[in-house]
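Subject: design request, 77 residues
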């Protein structure tokens, strides 16, 4: 399964389960990751997550720890 397929599957699950669900929350994380990192990296991370049993999450780069309270990178968690 490609990263795009995994992304689409997660977004459909978010819509199906609705506001407040874990699927909706994860869908939002993936959408934000896409905004931060772009398709290529997020789709690659999704493939890695699928293969290792992990999930994509949001994190802070070293440069942003003191500069902002918003996550600025996508990571595997």
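Subject: RE: design request

Done. Sequence follows.
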């Amino acid at each position: 399964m490609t990263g795009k397929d995994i992304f689409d599957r997660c977004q459909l699950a978010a819509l199906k389960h609705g506001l407040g669900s874990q699927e909706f929350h994860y869908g939002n994380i993936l959408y934000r990751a896409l905004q931060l990192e772009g398709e290529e990296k997020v789709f690659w991370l999704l493939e890695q997550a699928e293969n290792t049993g992990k999930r994509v999450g949001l994190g802070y780069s070293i440069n942003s720890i003191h500069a902002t309270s918003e996550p600025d990178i996508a990571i595997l968690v």
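The two ends are 20 Å apart (CA to CA).
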